[in-house]
Every structure is written in C-alpha cells, then in structure tokens.
Amino acid sequence: MEFISKRSRYVVNPLEEEDAIAEKLRKKGKEVIELNRGDPPVYFKTPEYIIEAYVSALKESKTHYVASAGVYELRNAVAKRYKRMYNIGVDEDSIIVTQGVSEAIQFINAAMINPGEKAILFKPYYPIYIPYLLNYGGIPLFEKYSERLKWNIDTDSLEKTIKKEASKRPKYMLITNPNNPTGTVLDRKVLKEIVELANEYDIFLISDEIYDEIVFNGAKFTSIGELAKGMPHMILNGASKDFDATGFRIGFAIIPENDKKSRQIKHAILQYAQARLSANAPAQYAVAEAMNNVKEHNASIRAMVKEIESRVNFATKLVNESSYLTAIEPNSAFYLFPRINKDILKIKDDREFVKRLLIEQQVQLARGSGFGEEGYVRIVALAEKEILSLAINKINEFCKQHSIKR
Ligand SMILES: Cc1ncc(COP(=O)(O)O)c(C=O)c1O
Fold it and tell me: Is the pTM of this model over 0.70?
C-alpha cells in the first residue's frame, strides 16, 4: 500500500532545492553566499516599533485563538491603509487574514478549483502558485511576462489565449505586481487591458501585490483595486515584505466587491479559514498597530527601499558588465532575473548552472526553470554591496571556467 498521496509529488519548492548541498558545504567549513531567498528581515531588522507591538500583544495575553477571518483591529487597519494609499473603499468584512499570502493561495484554489478546471498564470511565476493549483486538480494555462516588454504582459497574446479557451473559461487569472522574480512593476495601461479582458470574459482577477511599497527607480505602482472597481476581483498582500516581518506569517485577501460571485468566493474562503481556526494572534495585533502607525512605517519603509534600490542597482550594473549574464533593470521588490548567455557557456541548463555554481563557488541562486522560465537565474539583491560584489565576481569566475572559449 502506498502511504503517500499522489498529489504530494506536486509540492516542490525550487528555492530550497539546493539546501542539502549548501548544508554539506557548510559542514565541510565552507562559507556559502545565499542569494536564493527573498527574506528581508535577515538583512534589515524588523523595525523596533513592530517588535514592541508584538511584545505588548504577548504581555496583554493576546495568545488565544481569534476570529478565523482575522481580528477586527487588523481588518480595520487594512481597510484604512487601502483608503489612505489607493483611495479604495473596502469594508472590514471584505478582508480575510491568512497565515501569509501563501495560505491565501491555498484557500483560493481550495475554494475555486474543481478537477480539470483551468487558471491563467504568467511565466515566470512565483513557484508556490503551482502546487496548490495542481493539488486541487487544476490546470495552469500559461501566459508570459515578456522580457521583450521589460517583463510586462503582452495583452494581445493574452487575449488570443483567452478567446481560444472561451468555451471552457478559466476560473481565475493571477498576476504578480510588483513581480517576483523579475522585479518589475506592471504598466497601468497593461493593467487596464487585463482588467477589461477579465471583465469581458468573466474570469476572476487576482493580483498578488505583496511588494506594493517596495518600488523605486521612479516607477509607479497601480493596485488592481483602483482599476477593477465594480467588477469581481481580489487583492493579496501582507506583512512579510512591506512590514519586513516574514516570520510573523501574516497575509490578507481583500475581495472588495459585493456581487454574487465575490460573495460566494469570500464565503468559501472563510470556510477554509474556519477549518484552520485562526492565524497567529499576537502577530495580527502587532501588524494592526504597525499599519496604523503611518509615521513610523513611512520612515522605516523609505529607509529600507532607498537601501534596496541602491543594492539592486549596484548588482544590476555588475551583472550587466558581465558578458555571461544579461538583466532587465528592476524597479521593484529586490530580485534580478538575468538571462544566462548559454551560447558562450558549456553548461546544459539553469539547473546545472545553479548546482555547479554552488558546489564550485559556494554561491546559492535559484534556477529560472523553478519559476517556469528555463535559462535564467534569480538573484536576491538584499545583501550588503560587498557581498553582492563578491558573489557576482564568483559567478563571473565560474562562467569563465565554463566558457566555450577556454
Ligand atoms: C509574489 C509573492 N507572493 C507571496 C509570497 C509569500 O508571502 P507570505 O510570506 O505572505 O506567505 C512571496 C514570498 O516571497 C512572493 O514573492
């Protein structure tokens, strides 16, 4: 008898794939430069006022189960944030607090997908979108963020795909804006076209906006909530990146409209939330306080984004000086997604590139194919410049050793 379910094989996280090798190298006394995980508090301490709010919540014994949808204080803080930042009116009842956006992704698929139903995703995708969709028997219908369009969406191609699928309409379309792994903010014009397509073909539109405050190089972010007023849609966000608190495990799903479809989806997601009782209680109170403390938050996020901008631009310049890699300049998040110029390398694919780079130079990256885009690597540019510089020198050295010219 097979004790493991067939669906378990879908659950792979390409970001952790090389961890066992890295661990072995460390045991042998080698220092590994980890540029594979997008975890800001490792490099920028979670701001003190947020930590204090968490400690207060603990001291006030807010350590019990709370409402499955999330504590009112946090839902109210989220509603105020969206009014303040984007002039989007959302009611507290439109918000469901989850244990990170990751859990929201699980709930969405559980609530919406029957076996054989499709969902539109875009390559390169955030890897965690896939296993939950597959687990519920869903089928991804892939469109692309196009490198040619500086990683924006080619809406003509999207429309063709949607038209082709019109009879067996995809259930939802999920975009990531700002984007992981490309570090790109989607154009407002592109977003408007996406909203129109979703509306015309009756596809539920979801926008993962977890990096909405980590935007730089003059880019302007637009929340889908600003453009999709009056039609069913969902915004995902959380405390992990903007509030520099990945370990708190706080995310939220906002379903602002009150039409029948929105109400049904909200209800079904809430049932899943009820089945897992509640998200981390003290963290919810802490994030509520942090979100309402606009002055402290603005000061912290501005300082962090300024430093991230400087590190990302520094790394991009170094990468583009190399003849082995080519990156589109990011304007958000903290990732670079360079193409490997494989024509000049004796390396089969990005999987081999990442594995050998780790073994030979002790630099850990994530492979593009883990994001659905073979031939690229993702570099997390959160580390200090000296470390980024050292790592990119090592990448160049590795490429030189595997160059066809050698
Ligand atoms: C686009 C995107 N969505 C969601 C997540 C996961 O967020 P959370 O920590 O809220 O689960 C990440 C984390 O890297 C991400 O990049």
Answer: yes
